Fold this sequence. Notes:
Layout: E1 2-3, H1 7-14, H2 28-36, E2 40-44, E3 48-54, E4 59-65, E5 79-86, H3 92-100, E6 104-114, E7 126-129, H4 131-139, H5 144-147, E8 157-162, E9 168-174, E10 179-183, H6 192-205, E11 214-218, H7 223-232, E12 235-246
Amino acid sequence: MTKVNHYEILADLQKxxxxxxxxxxxxxxxxxxxxxxxxxxYVQTPDGLFLFAEREGFYKCIFxxxxxxxxxxxxxKPMGIYLTYRAECPPLDATQWLLSxxxxxxxxxxxxxxxxxxxGPLSDDVKAAGAExxxxxxxxxxxxxxxxxxxxxxxxxxxCVRADDGSLQGVLNDMGHTRIYAVSPDARGRGIGGRLYxxxxxxxxxxxxxxxxxxxxxxxxxxxxxxxxxxxxxxxxTRMTSCYVKR
Length: 247
């Protein structure tokens, strides 16, 4: 692997490969943060460009290919590859290619979108949470690949609700373009998820003329989260993402 030291290097590399056979969705701001912290690497082959973004415990692999005969380079950590597509157009060629390269399907998520959250009171018990406690709680409910959390030195911010003893009852991690949250079993059904999202949206909207558009990814077999998002004003759209993992 070669470390990407400048964004211009990444831009020049990407121009050499088409986008029709790719999972190319690394936002410029995310790429710049990864490059600044030395967390983005690449392998270039005649058939493909492979980017390896260091995540918490694994590599998130982003690729651009000339054709589906490309071989994915080996890595020193587990790898996760995410395919985003419209529900009516599953990426069969990409799926078959990943399976032939030793990946297995891990989880599929459905996207929900809100242009504004439903009105509701802000709760003064929502506080900031640190990286260590946030990651510890989320790790109890999700695998590393499903969380897609950045490394700790790229941690942005998290919101939490605490019990009287200071332990986390619920936490929502803001990763820039997506979020992931968890509520402990003994605190569910108390509206903690909604309070966390409203606090996040209030911070996100501060100083903006219009409310931000929010996208959230949810497992289709998680009715509690889906119900909460719908109450907040989210609607299911046509986007899906499937995570494939090689350990």
